[in-house]
Amino acid sequence: MILMTAAFCAFTLTAVLGLMIAFNLFRGKFVARSSSILHGASALLGSVLAIGAALLGETAIYINIVMAVVIIVLGVLAAIKRHKTGIVPKGILLVHILLAVTCYLMLGATVFLGIDTAGLLGINLA
Fold first, then answer.
1. Cα(35)–Cα(42) distance, integer angstroms
2. What is the spatial distance between Cα 44 and Cα 100, in angstroms, rounded to a whole number?
3. What is the mean pLDDT of each run of 10 residues along the chain (126 residues)?
4. Comparing C-alpha atoms, which of 65, 49, 61, 79 is closest to residue 115?
5. Domain ranges of the chain
6. Which residues are CB-contacts of 51 (< 8 A; sequence separation ≥ 6)?
7. How far apart, in Å, are the Cα atoms of 124 and each of 14, 62, 118?
């Protein structure tokens, strides 16, 4: 449970940074590369901690790991597109944000309420 809580803390930092980045991007303001790198690094740390929890038997977190992979891929695609063209792919960014919020809330429900959110949805990944 300690690794899941640590993952939640890392993802909280990721969420705060992500909100700051998203607000600036959607307003057309400059986003420092360091913000994006720190956002990605904290997401990677949270993912590693979640994988560690899964390896120690926390099966309720499997769905979060699957979602995190998709979220990270979308984030990397958005960053590459922005770097190459200077244009923010708002559709990709919106899907990235919506999946991230959903994943974060599901992880919070698992960590703090002990709810197996994947099980509630009828998803069996174990």
1. 11
2. 13
3. 94 95 87 91 95 93 93 93 87 94 96 90 79
4. 61
5. 2-117
6. 65
7. 27, 9, 7
Amino acid identity at 68: A
pTM given for the model: 0.88
Whether 87 contacts 79, CB under 8 Å: no
Contact present, 62 and 50 (Cβ < 8 Å)? no
Please give the Cα distance from 119 to 63 (Å, whole number). 9
Residue with tokens 């792919």: 89
List Cβ neighbours of 22 (8 Å cut-off, separation of 6 or more). 93, 97
Q: Report residue 26 as tokens.
A: 């959607």
CA 90 from centroid of its chain's CA atoms = 17
Question: Which residue type, as a one-letter code, is found at position 8?
Answer: F
